[in-house]
Inverse folding.
């Protein structure tokens, strides 16, 4: 086999389908979030698609903690958690995360993806007879963990407790079951009916695994996520979250009972054999978690900015997709057009928002995914709406002329 030809042909096909991934070449401007210098246009742009939802990646307290940590502890961790890579900061962070979610303990991973892949594959593979029941729109990291476990799996319709009940009812009563779902789905912005799903899982004696990656820091009295907001945090077997979005740094984690977390710690290859998070990252995450547990100001401002952007887009007649959360998707519906609109926003208006195409979303639902932050001003919103309206109008006129 000519491997180079194979690789080249597959990459050429991605280009033809307008699915080839082009990375932004950004320098975030510390203290000026959501501004960044973009080398593609040799100038400053306003970022409208960051997962640093609250701007905590540039919060002074976070930065100061990271500077102090790197001077005191050095750059890297020096090993895996069980071979010299465990610091007092890792322990403190896990205590804070356990407290955040009202659980006995927590375990930190190098990313949210790694947490999902490692924990789900371990639980499903090492629990005799386990059947995993997964929401149809679960994240790729959850799918990878379930697939890598080689455990038997079933899919239930997205956010549909009745279909979940039907699936569980069809399974042998004596087999252990694990129901996996997310709280906020990152592309459509819809929110799971957590209480209803827990009701069904409890009725069939199933464990529950909730991915709160796009909700931690943003919802609930202390930022523990949708489960806290809805008053059902105590009903879940495992809660998984990230330190890389609302908390603004890097890393992932799970929180649960002492026995379950220790079981994962002792059995998950993705944890055992991976170099631990650098202390500098742990220090920043620790301060971010502590701050957002105490301060609701960022969450209040964030929700107001999200509501304002949604209202303004509707008033402008733009194709806003319905969303229950802070995710603001604008439907384009075609991969080439989505990339073209994204490029024009960048080149003409210095607005950066990444096109979202297949396989991240189904074909025909290509979109721009906007993520307002507390730092986006009224002027930023005015500029975004004006630019989107101008670009959208031009593309619609072009389509009409071509027809």
């Amino acid at each position: 086999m000519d491997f180079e030809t194979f690789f080249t042909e597959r990459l050429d096909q991605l280009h033809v389908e307008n699915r080839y991934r082009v990375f932004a070449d950004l320098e975030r401007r510390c203290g000026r979030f959501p501004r960044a210098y973009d080398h593609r246009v040799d100038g400053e742009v306003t970022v409208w698609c960051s997962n640093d939802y609250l701007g905590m990646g540039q919060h002074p307290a976070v930065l100061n903690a990271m500077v102090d940590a790197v001077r005191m502890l050095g750059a890297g961790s020096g090993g895996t958690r069980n071979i010299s890579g465990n610091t007092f900061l890792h322990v403190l962070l896990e205590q804070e995360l356990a407290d955040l979610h009202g659980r006995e303990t927590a375990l930190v991973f190098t990313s949210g993806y790694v947490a999902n892949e490692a924990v789900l594959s371990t639980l499903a593979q090492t629990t005799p007879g386990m059947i995993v029941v997964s929401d149809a729109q679960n994240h790729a990291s959850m799918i990878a963990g379930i697939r890598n476990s080689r455990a038997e799996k079933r899919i239930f319709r997205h956010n549909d407790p009745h279909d979940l009940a039907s699936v569980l009812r069809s399974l042998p009563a004596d087999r252990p079951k694990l129901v996996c779902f997310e709280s906020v789905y990152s592309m459509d912005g819809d929110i799971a009916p957590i209480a209803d799903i827990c009701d069904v899982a409890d009725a069939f004696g199933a464990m529950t695994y909730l991915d709160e990656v796009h909700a931690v820091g943003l919802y609930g009295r202390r930022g523990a996520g949708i489960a806290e907001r809805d008053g059902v945090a105590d009903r879940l077997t495992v809660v998984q979250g990230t330190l890389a979005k609302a908390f603004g740094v890097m890393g992932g984690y799970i929180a649960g009972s002492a026995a379950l977390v220790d079981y994962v710690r002792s059995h998950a290859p993705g944890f055992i054999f991976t170099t631990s998070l650098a202390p500098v990252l742990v220090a920043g995450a620790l301060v971010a978690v502590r701050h957002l547990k105490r301060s609701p100001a960022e969450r209040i401002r964030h929700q107001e900015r999200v509501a304002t952007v949604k209202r303004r887009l509707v008033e402008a007649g733009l194709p806003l997709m319905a969303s229950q959360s802070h995710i603001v998707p604008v439907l384009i519906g075609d991969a080439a057009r989505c990339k073209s609109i994204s490029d024009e926003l960048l080149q003409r208006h210095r607005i950066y928002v990444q096109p979202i195409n297949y396989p991240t979303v189904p074909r025909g639902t290509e979109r721009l995914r906007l993520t307002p932050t507390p730092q986006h001003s009224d002027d930023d919103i005015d500029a975004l709406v004006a630019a989107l309206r101008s670009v959208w109008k031009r593309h619609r006129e072009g389509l009409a002329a071509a027809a």
